[in-house]
Design goal:
The protein has helices at residues 37-54, 71-74, 78-81, 97-109, 122-129, and strands at 8-11, 15-21, 24-29, 34-35, 57-62, 68-69, 87-93, 116-119. By secondary structure, the chain is an alpha/beta fold. The longest helix has 18 residues, at 37-54.
């Protein structure tokens, strides 16, 4: 007998984190907010809690069109600070070349412990995740 899946979500200052299926988490960053260490860590803690509840999953991260960030945010290894042991892979949807370049540079400097790719469109990210 299988248990019915119940979608869950947590709202943080920077993003809404949604568990949309037993094996899927989506992070929808909010426009107009500056990415800070505290804000990123709050979002990652929400991801961690949802992952603990749902188990192994793939994540889709959707950036806003414009990303503003504190310099401390880009010099912090967030996956070391807030591990994501239930994450199997992450697709980053950058929406534009500026965000894509920034995200690729960050991931090259602080590689996550799971497969991760950067895309310009949500459809590309979902396809890579096998959704």
């Amino acid at each position: 007998m299988s248990v019915a899946f119940t979608p869950r979500e947590e709202d943080t200052e920077l993003a809404t984190v949604r568990c949309t299926a037993v094996d899927r988490v989506e992070v929808h960053f909010k426009p107009g907010h500056t990415f800070t260490v505290a804000g990123i860590q709050e979002m990652m803690q929400a991801r961690q809690r949802l992952g603990e509840a749902s188990g192994p999953h793939k994540a889709l991260i959707l950036l806003p069109d414009h990303v503003d960030f504190d310099m401390d945010m880009i010099s912090t290894d967030h996956y070391r600070q807030v591990p994501q042991p239930h994450t199997l892979a992450v697709a980053w949807v950058a929406r534009n070349e500026r965000n894509a370049t920034f995200t690729r540079m960050y991931l090259a400097y602080f590689p996550p412990p799971f497969p991760s790719e950067v895309f310009l469109t949500e459809d590309e990210g979902r396809a890579w995740l096998g959704w």
